[in-house]
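#lab-general

N.A. 3:47 PM
ok so I finally got the sequence cleaned up, no stray characters, all 199 residues accounted for. can someone with queue access submit it? mine expired

B.Y. 3:52 PM
send it over

N.A. 3:53 PM
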Amino acid sequence: SARGSTSVVLLYHRMGLPKLGSLVAGQYVSPRLLRSQLDYLNARGWAGATLSETTDNSIVPDQDRFAVTFDDGYRGVYEHACPALADRNLTATIYVVAGSIGGINDWDRKAGDQSEPMMTAGHIRELTDHGFRIGSHTMTHPHLTELTDEQLRAELADSKHVLEDITGTEVTAFSYPYGDYDKRVLEQVAEAGYSSEVA
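B.Y. 4:20 PM
back already:
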């Protein structure tokens, strides 16, 4: 654009205050802080956008834009973040670990971290109905570059199918756990039918 608009993606994980002994305290954002960040951007003329809109100047020309994403699918996102976004007519993409729906964050627990409840299938359906986009964050949140070809295909395809069965919509968005990928992983993600990826 003529004046050079800016686009940013805000990546969040967990809502609330860190639990005692958490190994990832920096992943927590209080609901109040999230609301103040959204209001700060809004007051300065930033437009909420989808991920695709942040890269397409023809959709929101000459305006600074921000997209919101959440990795993992924690229940606190459903309870606190999504209402705050909806109250401001904003949306988000939520990348869900499909194998942990209705459970806990098993991958963190195995690393010695505190357990957190994850969204249920009902939560995910409700958010889809309210305009939130659901993406895949694999079945079990592994380091994808360490998997065999067969394991990799299963993580990508199975999570896609689980989420599509829940949402009733095609799932084409994908987020790489730990930001971990290589050429082989990129090729398999595209082959699995994902057309939008973030690390």
